From TrEMBL:
Keyword terms, alphabetized: Metal-binding, Oxidoreductase, Zinc
Protein's name in the database: Zn-dependent alcohol dehydrogenase
Pfam family name, one: ADH_N
Lineage: Bacteria, Bacillati, Actinomycetota, Actinomycetes, Pseudonocardiales
MF terms in GO: oxidoreductase activity; zinc ion binding
Length: 366
């Protein structure tokens, strides 16, 4: 099969021929049809997140089941599916407590070493050299992943529309539902209107937020944010964004501010934009070593809550999200602004790095 291989920091992805991966017990092989280009992948490409090389990135996968490993039930060859970027083992202490989004084995084996849970990769160059997997390694014509991260796409839903559900949408849902527990009538700010930010805006509307304020430095992204459901937009390169947010909310600030980029300036805007007792939810993945500042006295006096959110709980939440898509309440396809053929996969990440992608860019493989 063809795969886009990451060989070193700052080097372009290289399309290579790899051996077809074979699923082991409890795993599923998928013929990939499309894969989203996520900022987390870009962090790896730029060397901002440590990860072994050579590796295949890509963790927003839509495709068709091509092979089932031993012991897999509930799916059939030919089923249209999407994957969650979090691949819960279902057995560790965190999974047992219902915290699948911080599965211990996922972080120990996959995020740290690029392996699945038998301590091995499924990807190899001809001749046997191992190639490591970032989640399932979806920037390839075929990928293998645990069945716990595979979900059938409902009838009537276009497979090409839903690749991003497995990461940006699921990440947004986890932040809204589990970290912040947004209620009908709450006011929210979404700071950085990229891929995850776009999903936060869409889902905040589904959750019934009364005011959804999008903050970014790009007028094009803010225009897109309005189309996705933002009630107000603020260009933080032109105005004091926290001051404008307080003005829009009658001087009080928002109930919840989501930081969706993973950068100090966006964290500062989110931190300074919430009401007393409000929540600052950090969703964006920052480069390792990035630090934000806050005044401990202010946190205590204003009873601020600063939370981290890594994603949703796949086995509980992915069916909910796909049902919202099937019923037309959630349209992830509206956030897709660019599609690239597989041969242009590097162009997708270059555009993402330049800040040119509105919402999500998707790489089509078949």
């Amino acid at each position: 099969m063809r795969a886009a291989v990451h060989t070193a920091a700052h080097e372009p992805l290289r399309i290579e021929q790899l051996d077809d991966p074979t699923p082991q017990a409890g795993e599923v092989a998928i013929d990939v049809r499309s894969c989203g280009a996520c900022h987390s992948d870009l962090h790896v490409i730029k060397g901002e997140l440590p990860f072994p090389t050579p590796a295949v990135l890509g963790h927003e996968v839509a495709g068709v089941v091509s092979e089932l490993g031993p012991g897999v039930s509930g799916l059939s060859v030919g089923d249209p599916v999407v994957t969650s970027f979090i691949m819960p083992c279902g057995q560790c202490g965190q999974c047992s407590r219902g915290n699948e989004e911080i599965c211990e084995r996922f972080f120990r084996f996959n995020r740290a070493q690029g392996k699945l849970y038998d301590d091995d990769t499924r990807l190899h160059r001809p001749g046997g050299e191992p190639v490591w997997m970032y989640s399932q390694g979806g920037m390839a014509e075929r990928c293998v992943t645990p069945v716990t991260s595979v979900y059938r796409v409902p009838d009537g839903v276009e497979l090409s529309d839903v690749a991003s559900v497995g990461c940006s949408t699921m990440t947004a849902y986890g932040a809204l539902r589990h970290a912040a527990n947004v209620q009908v009538g709450d006011t929210v700010a979404v700071v950085a209107a990229g891929g995850v930010g776009s999903a936060l805006i869409q889902l905040a509307a589904v959750f019934g937020a009364s005011m959804i304020i999008a903050v970014d430095i790009s007028d094009d992204k803010l225009t897109a944010a309005r189309e996705l459901g933002a009630t107000h937009v603020v260009n933080s390169s032109e105005v004091d964004a926290p001051a404008v947010i307080r003005e829009l909310t009658g001087g009080r600030g928002v109930d919840v501010a989501f930081e969706a980029l993973g950068a100090v300036p966006t964290f500062n805007v989110a931190r300074d934009s919430v009401v007393e007792g409000g929540q600052v939810v950090v969703v964006g993945i920052a480069a390792k070593g990035t630090t934000g500042e806050f005044d401990l006295a202010t946190i205590a006096r204003r009873k601020l809550q600063i939370k981290g959110s890594y994603g949703a709980k796949p086995r509980r939440d992915m069916p909910v999200l796909l049902d919202l898509v099937a019923r037309g309440h959630l349209r992830p396809q509206d956030a897709i602004s660019r599609r690239y053929p597989f041969e242009k996969v590097q162009d997708a990440f270059d555009a993402l790095n330049r800040g040119e992608v509105l919402g999500r860019a998707v790489v089509d493989l078949g």
